[in-house]
């Protein structure tokens, strides 16, 4: 046996940057949390504490702030690509960069006054390698949805431990975590023209998720998951793969019989734990290999 | 010295009830978390473990669900009053009831499909005593606001430990926790006619908070707090006292000079901790005594 | 009607200070979160945005760090009193100071190496007024306890909504939040000699809570609460009042009968919500008035 | 383009089970959170809502409770393997099972009285496939460590955005998330004799992490990470791979010069965000392929 170093990465996580763009009286706001992870020729630092290849995470944080000033923050995917390429291009020891950005939404209340909008977070995850390839996954998390009818669950497998009654009308509720992989950019050159569409892509994909959740008469949450992913791929040709994680936030019909009351689908107890967790991938069968896109 | 029992209360906390009201195809949703605390002749249970006066917290939970079925859930203040009066009226040992309800907002996406709306929570805190008096405080929490200009802070006291520079243009951001006390209902009889206005009152008071925050050129967060409370009282005659807790979520202008960049109010670092915390009460000088209303 | 300013306070919340005391190779660690709230002649800032009376919360934060260097951090109650008196004594407009400190525990692993110890947090809440009076409440929170037997609950009141079965052997689990008020210091002069006993007092009171929880055959959580408070007061003459908040973290015996299994007190489901919440005060009938001690 | 279903899995997450083992007066406690994910022939449910292959997540929850009664809960790895094999062996459509268990520690205070011990959580992640192979990863998270000296960081790469000063004496603090992969069991037959060593393995590996953290004079957190992983592999021949995620919880020396004070490594500000995040794998170069072990 010999002990060796395996895959590794390091960087500054959760740098919170708020960018104000001033257009006279009218201000525009971008509120992001940026996490950077770099990897490459990092043996010496692990094995011998030699930091010559290590760009401090503090410098990475500074770069986020400086780039926000120099380039502004447009779509988060563009800003993430800008950062990822910068580290790979400027640091010889850095062979690969991963940049994840969360964007927190604000709604305008006045020319320079804003209200935070919701728990939902727009996300992106970008990789850039020194071989010139990049990958972009966009997404969201904490989009909480509920259908108060139009959901069934029956005909399932049973075993010695099954007590669940079949349901022909149940509440279906979930908090969506979704990511969608862009077919491009594969190479740096086409990236910039491509970039302009991230906003459209986000709005469109999100709308597909909402529509498919609300519009699918559900026989299982798996069926709904697949319908959501399929809708995104069918409507958004720029995307080639969707991954969804859907907790099944159980809403149990309360038994009111002991109190002489019926409960025709009116009063529910929303449980915290345990919960079902349904995870799945829907993809274009011609999608290029994902590589590290989701890591 | 003699050891004695002082003030005490007990009850079921955080019962989550989701109420669906069905109007044919169209469903309506109420999603609430209810916390009950009862007090009264509870010496025997503390001193001797005699539970004869103790209505189980499990029964309190059941009551929430049964009342949701029997009475529906209209405005949370009404539902809280209904519960509070029930426990005081039906249990001889219960002399006083406190009911707090959080309401989680949903936005409609279809006839029976909904999306959770925001981090903001509508709240109420109701007390009812066996002497017939009730108090109602309505409010909200986690309403996150930001002004990207129109805020100054200078002319402050200084001491040996002061290093803060005066600011003539800063970001002002906070997460509002607010409560407003209703002048009525003082007695049970007038309560029901009064009740119909809780929804209006909430919408109106919330709008006052938003307007005053956005519209006040702020010389300090205290000044903004007072303006917010004052606006509510001036516009809503049914309210007699407002309490606000406003964390000052500091947004520090990042020093970009080391990178040869200026930063004219564009790039900020949003800090988590520490934060300023400004708490204050604004009231009508003719307000009746608060009694236990805020406890 | 006239709108007026009511009670108010402001300050820096959650300043995290880590203090290393070096004794040659051997280091000692104090890890605290300090929250300061000042009040006094603050009308002008609320009504007119005049900050002349406002010592910035940033200066308060600086004071925490500077005092940690100048005075070290001994018992948190002493450090809180030092800060509270400083603000009242040095700022004419500050008539009253409230300082709350959380202490996070570390266990030694080497001369200068430490491991965080538990979720439990030691707390204090100190008030100092310009009339010279001070109050000190010490305590803890998130002390999680469980008895797997020795707990019953029966003979309780019942109503139409009661379905709970009497229990003669149940699991009793809680997360203790406790505070104990020191009879002294009433005035500044005696405070310092008194101060040396805070560590003893903490260790002793905490041990009383643990002993009384483990040692009480419980007929209700209220009975256990009272026994815990009583034990503290009987053993610690320096204390005059104990306040406890005990969530009843329900552990439900799982019904295994559908699987042909009995469950003789072996397999439990630990629920998150809802939970019972038992709050109570136990005090020496000769305790001096609490004043703002618990606010 | 054709839309197809990719990798997917489903199951019950975060089933909390508390198991009491009664040995006369003396009770023993196991407190676990179990998450199950099954995968296999699940096309029909995704594409057509046909649930015939879907064992309800409710049945999975029931199985956790029933198995806790029937088999007790010994080492969490054994319980996880028992569950994983059960689902694969008993459900034809389930080709692969993943079971993750968190164990929450309690310290004894009496024959049947316990105190929760720390934030630290013992973890395991088990996979079992219908081809008969299993993998076991054991680990922990939220083990919070701090060295108040013996840590340096200098000689690092610099760029235009670097302002960090070299440090020759800094505080090093982290919250360890670690997993270690067992070389066996590769096949079912040898698993049971192997199982008896999980407790030893856990205690031993944890001690290695603590020792290496405290004992390494650190030139970078990467060096410490590697030393921690290496120590585990060198001492525990039953393990073949260690993965570590170490947030660098920055403790910044407070600048007290404005107050006329020096700060010789005594007063630190502990920041929440951003933080460095160092992730790395240390492995035996003869380790068998990991397969899905870490997924």
UniProtKB/TrEMBL annotation, chains A, B, C, D:
It catalyses: urate + O2 + H2O = 5-hydroxyisourate + H2O2. Its EC number is 1.7.3.3. InterPro entries: Uricase. 5-hydroxyisourate binds at residues 57, 153, 170, 222, 248. NCBIfam families: urate_oxi (TIGR03383). It comes from Sphaerisporangium rufum. This is Uricase. Pathway: Purine metabolism; urate degradation; (S)-allantoin from urate: step 1/3. Keywords: Oxidoreductase, Purine metabolism.
């Amino acid at each position: 046996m010999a002990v060796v170093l395996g895959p590794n990465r390091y960087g500054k996580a959760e740098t919170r940057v708020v960018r104000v763009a001033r257009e006279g009286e009218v201000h525009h706001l971008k509120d992001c949390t940026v996490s950077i992870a770099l990897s490459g020729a990092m043996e010496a630092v692990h094995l011998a504490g030699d930091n010559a290849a290590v760009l401090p995470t503090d410098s990475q944080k500074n770069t986020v702030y400086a780039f926000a000033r120099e380039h502004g923050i447009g779509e988060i995917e563009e800003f993430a690509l800008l950062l990822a390429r910068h580290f790979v291009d400027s640091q010889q020891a850095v062979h690969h960069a991963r940049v994840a950005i969360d964007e927190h939404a604000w709604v305008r209340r006045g020319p320079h006054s804003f209200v935070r909008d919701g728990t939902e977070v727009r996300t992106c995850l970008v990789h850039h390698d020194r071989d010139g390839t990049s990958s972009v996954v966009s997404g969201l998390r904490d989009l909480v949805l509920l259908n108060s009818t139009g959901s069934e669950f029956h005909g399932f497998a049973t075993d010695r431990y099954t007590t669940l009654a079949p349901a022909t009308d149940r509440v279906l509720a979930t908090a969506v975590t979704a990511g969608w992989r862009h077919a491009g950019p594969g190479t740096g050159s086409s990236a910039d023209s491509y970039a302009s569409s991230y906003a459209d892509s986000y709005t469109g994909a999100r709308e597909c998720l909402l529509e498919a959740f609300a519009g699918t008469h559900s026989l299982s949450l798996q069926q709904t998951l697949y319908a959501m992913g399929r809708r995104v791929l069918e409507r958004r040709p720029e995307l080639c793969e969707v991954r969804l994680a859907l907790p099944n936030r159980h809403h149990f019909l309360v038994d009111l019989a002991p109190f002489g009351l019926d409960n025709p689908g009116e009063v529910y107890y929303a449980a915290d734990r345990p919960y079902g967790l349904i995870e799945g991938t829907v993809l274009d069968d011609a999608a290029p290999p994902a590589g590290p896109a989701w890591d």
